[in-house]
C-alpha cells in the first residue's frame, strides 16, 4: 500500500487529540483509511441517547474526492436510507478538499438534529415525517431505543 | 587534431581580445550582447564580478565615445556605475542596452539627423545616477491592486519578486521566470520605466506604466520635440523570459504563471495542510492556497471526471473551496500537470468547445474529429453527417450510428453491422456482431449507463440516491435515474433511494 498522505495522518492525530464533542472516529488497526465512527444522538432530537455507528472510508484520491460514509446502525431518518446511505450534498457534488473528516461528521450530526423531510426525502420515512410528524418522531425514538442503545 | 588546434587558437584569440579591453582576468565569463541606440549589436564577454563602470569602459571604444557618456539600460532600469554585474540577474546571451547620455552629445555630429533630435530632447528625465536593477527593487506582486505599504527593509528583502513561467521551448516545463520590459510602441528594450510595477494588473494590462524610450528608431522619441501630446507617451510592455535557458534573442518569451508564488508567508496548503515552498494562489477573494502537488491532483481528478467548467470561453477550474469568481483565467497554469495530462486537457477543452458551438464529435473509435454541421433546417438532409477531414465516416446526426434512411433505431444493436450491409461475403450476422472491435465497450456502456435526458451523455450511477446531476460542462441537469426525466419532488417522495 502506498504511504499514507500527511494530511490523513494530521487529521487523524487531531481527531484523537481534540475529538469533536459527541463524535468519536478511530482508524482501523489494519487500514488507516477506514474509520470506525460513533456519533451520539444530539439532545432534543428523536435520536437523543442513541449511539450510532458509522463507517467512513477515505478513497485513494482523498482529499480531492469525498470520504465515503455510511450508517451501520439502523436509523429512522428521512435523509438516510435503509442501507445507511446518506444523501448529503457535501458527500457528492459539493465536496471540496477544504472540507475534512471533522466537518463531514459535524454535518452528519447536524443532519440528525434537523431532519429535512421537505427537501431530499426517503420514501416511506419522509412521507410519514411530512404527513404525521409526531408519529414519525415516535418511530425514530423507538428505532433509537431498539437499535442504538445498549450496544 | 586540427579541431583542438582551432579551439585553443580561438580561446587564445578571445583572451587577447578581452585583455585589450581591460587588464582584468576573467574567471567565469558571461557572454552577453550590447545593443546600442544606433541599432548595432556588440558581443562581449564579461566577468560577473565586474561593475557597470567596467562594462562602460569596454563598450566605449566600440561605440566611439567616452565611458561617462554611456548609459546602460537593462530590464527597464538605468544601471548605475557601482552595480556588480552578477547582481542583475543577467543570463548567458542576455541583451543590455547602451545609449548615449543626452547632454554630452548635443554637439557631436552624426550621420543620421534623427538621432540628434532625439538625444537633445530626452532631457533630464533620468539623471546620470541611475538606479538599482529591477530584480533588486521589485516587490512580490499582488493579484489585485492593494498596496504593500511601508514594508521594513527586511520585509522588502523577503518580498523580493519571484516569477514562474511556462517555457514552451526549449525547456517545455514550468520554470523560474524573469520580468523584462520593452517599449510598447517600437519594441525596443532601451527603455526606463517611470515606476516599478506594484501589482499584476500593472504587468499584464497595457497602458498602465509609462516609459522613457531611448531608441532612436522609436516614433515617439523622434517626434517628441514636435508634438508632446498625450498620445505621444510611450507605455511599458512587460514580458517574461525563462531563467533556465540562455536567452534565444528578443523574441524568446515565456508565459507568466502569475498564480504560482513562492510561499513567503508560510501558508499551509488547503488540501494537504503542509507548508510548501511554492504554492498556487487562487484568484478568489480569500486567495486560497494549494501546494503544487495538490493542485496537480485536484486538476487530474477533475479531468478524469471531465468536470472542468466553462468560465466564458475558458475551459477551466475554480478554487477547490468553491469560492465565487475564482476561475483560473490563464489556462497555461494547467501546464503544471505535465505534458501528458496537459494534452488531455487540451483535447477535452477542444471537444467541449466544439460541442458548445453546436458541433458534433465523429463517433468512430479513434477518430473523434470535431464537426460543425449546418444548422438543422431540413431535418432529413442535415441528418447525414460525413466526417470530412477526418476518417470519412458517414453517420446519422441523431443516433450517431452509421447513416441510415428512415427512423433511428432505438438501440444500437444492429447499427454496427448495418453500415457494412453491402458485404460481399456472407457472414453469420450473429458472429459478425460479436466480432466487432468495440462491441464489448458498447455493451458495457449500454447496460451500465443511462443518457442524461438533456445532453444525452451516457451516465453511470455508482451508488447513492436516484437524484442525478449531470457533470458535463455546461449541462448540470438534475434528473431522476428511475424516470429519466427532470428530478421532481415526486421522485423524492416515491423513489429517492429506489
Rounded to the nearest angstrom, the distance between the terminal CA atoms of chain B is 85 Å
Helices of chain B, by number, come to 14
Q: Cα-atom Rg of chain A, whole angstroms?
A: 16 Å
Oligomer: heterodimer
Shape call of chain A = globular
| Helix-strand string of chain A | HEEEEHHH
Q: Helix proportion of residues of chain B, in percent?
A: 10-25%
Q: What order do the strands of the largest sheet of chain B run in, or round the barrel if closed?
A: 8-9-10-7-6-11
Shape of chain B: elongated
Order of strands across the widest beta sheet of chain A?
Answer: 1-2-3-4
Total number of beta strands of chain B: 24
What is the level 1 CATH name of chain A?
A: Alpha Beta
The proportion of strand residues of chain B reads 15-25%
At CATH's second level, what is the architecture of chain A?
Roll
Structure summary, number of beta strands of chain A: 4
**Whole-number mean pLDDT of chain A:** 88
The total domain count of chain A is 1
Structural class of chain A: alpha+beta
**Proportion of helical residues of chain A:** 25-40%
Amino acid at each position: 500500500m502506498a504511504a499514507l498522505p500527511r494530511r490523513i495522518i494530521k487529521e487523524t492525530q487531531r481527531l484523537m487529540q481534540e475529538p469533536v464533542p459527541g463524535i468519536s472516529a478511530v482508524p482501523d488497526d489494519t487500514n488507516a483509511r477506514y474509520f470506525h465512527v460513533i456519533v451520539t444522538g444530539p439532545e432534543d432530537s428523536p435520536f437523543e441517547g442513541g449511539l450510532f455507528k458509522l463507517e467512513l472510508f477515505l478513497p485513494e484520491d482523498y482529499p480531492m474526492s469525498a470520504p465515503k460514509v455510511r450508517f451501520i446502525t439502523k436509523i429512522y431518518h428521512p435523509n438516510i436510507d435503509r442501507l445507511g446511505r446518506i444523501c448529503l450534498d457535501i458527500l457528492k457534488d459539493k465536496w471540496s478538499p477544504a472540507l475534512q473528516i471533522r466537518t463531514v461528521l459535524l454535518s452528519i450530526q447536524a443532519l440528525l438534529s434537523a431532519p429535512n423531510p421537505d427537501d431530499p426525502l426517503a420514501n416511506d420515512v419522509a412521507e410519514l415525517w411530512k404527513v404525521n410528524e409526531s408519529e414519525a418522531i415516535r418511530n425514530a425514538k423507538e428505532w433509537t431505543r431498539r437499535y442504538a442503545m445498549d450496544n | 587534431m586540427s579541431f583542438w588546434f582551432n579551439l585553443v587558437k580561438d580561446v587564445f584569440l578571445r583572451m587577447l581580445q578581452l585583455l585589450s579591453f581591460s587588464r582584468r582576468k576573467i574567471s567565469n565569463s558571461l557572454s552577453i550582447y550590447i545593443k546600442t541606440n544606433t541599432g548595432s549589436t556588440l558581443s562581449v564577454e564579461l566577468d560577473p564580478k565586474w561593475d557597470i563602470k567596467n562594462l562602460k569602459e569596454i563598450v566605449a571604444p566600440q561605440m566611439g565615445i567616452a565611458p561617462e557618456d554611456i548609459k546602460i539600460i537593462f530590464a527597464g532600469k538605468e544601471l548605475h556605475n557601482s552595480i556588480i554585474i552578477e547582481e542583475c540577474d543577467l543570463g548567458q546571451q542576455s541583451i543590455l542596452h547602451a545609449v548615449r547620455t543626452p547632454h554630452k552629445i548635443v554637439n557631436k555630429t552624426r550621420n543620421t539627423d534623427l538621432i540628434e533630435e532625439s538625444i537633445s530632447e530626452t532631457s533630464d528625465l533620468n539623471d546620470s545616477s541611475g538606479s538599482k536593477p529591477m530584480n533588486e527593487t521589485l516587490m512580490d506582486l499582488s493579484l489585485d491592486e492593494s498596496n504593500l505599504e511601508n514594508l521594513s527593509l527586511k520585509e522588502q528583502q523577503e518580498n523580493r519578486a519571484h516569477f514562474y513561467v511556462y517555457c514552451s521551448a526549449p525547456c517545455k516545463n514550468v520554470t523560474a521566470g524573469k520580468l523584462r520590459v520593452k517599449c510598447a510602441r517600437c519594441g525596443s528594450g532601451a527603455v526606463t520605466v517611470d515606476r516599478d510595477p506594484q501589482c499584476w494588473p500593472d504587468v499584464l494590462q497595457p497602458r498602465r506604466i509609462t516609459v522613457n524610450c531611448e531608441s532612436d528608431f522609436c516614433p515617439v522619441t523622434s517626434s517628441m520635440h514636435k508634438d508632446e501630446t498625450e498620445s505621444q507617451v510611450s507605455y511599458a510592455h512587460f514580458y517574461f523570459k525563462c531563467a533556465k535557458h540562455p536567452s534565444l534573442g528578443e523574441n524568446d518569451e515565456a508565459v507568466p504563471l502569475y498564480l504560482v508564488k513562492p510561499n513567503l508567508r508560510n501558508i499551509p496548503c488547503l488540501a494537504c495542510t503542509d507548508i510548501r515552498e511554492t504554492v498556487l494562489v487562487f484568484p478568489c477573494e480569500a486567495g486560497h492556497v494549494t501546494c503544487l502537488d495538490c493542485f496537480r491532483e485536484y486538476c487530474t481528478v477533475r479531468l478524469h471526471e471531465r468536470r472542468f467548467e466553462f468560465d466564458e470561453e475558458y475551459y477551466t477550474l475554480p478554487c477547490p473551496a468553491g469560492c465565487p469568481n475564482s476561475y483560473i483565467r490563464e489556462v497555461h497554469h494547467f501546464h503544471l500537470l505535465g505534458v501528458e495530462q496537459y494534452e488531455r486537457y487540451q483535447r477535452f477543452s477542444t471537444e467541449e468547445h466544439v460541442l458548445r458551438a453546436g458541433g458534433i464529435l465523429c463517433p468512430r473509435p479513434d477518430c473523434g474529429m470535431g464537426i460543425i454541421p449546418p444548422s438543422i433546417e431540413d431535418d432529413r438532409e442535415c441528418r447525414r453527417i460525413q466526417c470530412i477531414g477526418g476518417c470519412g465516416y458517414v453517420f446519422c446526426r441523431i443516433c450517431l450510428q452509421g447513416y441510415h434512411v428512415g427512423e433511428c433505431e432505438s438501440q444500437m444493436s444492429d447499427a454496427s453491422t448495418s453500415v457494412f450491409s453491402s458485404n460481399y461475403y456472407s457472414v453469420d450476422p450473429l458472429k459478425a456482431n460479436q466480432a466487432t472491435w468495440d462491441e464489448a465497450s458498447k455493451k458495457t456502456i449500454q447496460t451500465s449507463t443511462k443518457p442524461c435526458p438533456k445532453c444525452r451523455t451516457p451516465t453511470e450511477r455508482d451508488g447513492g440516491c436516484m437524484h442525478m446531476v449531470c457533470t458535463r460542462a455546461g449541462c448540470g441537469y438534475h434528473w431522476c435515474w428511475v424516470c429519466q426525466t427532470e428530478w421532481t419532488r415526486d421522485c423524492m417522495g416515491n423513489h429517492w433511494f429506489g
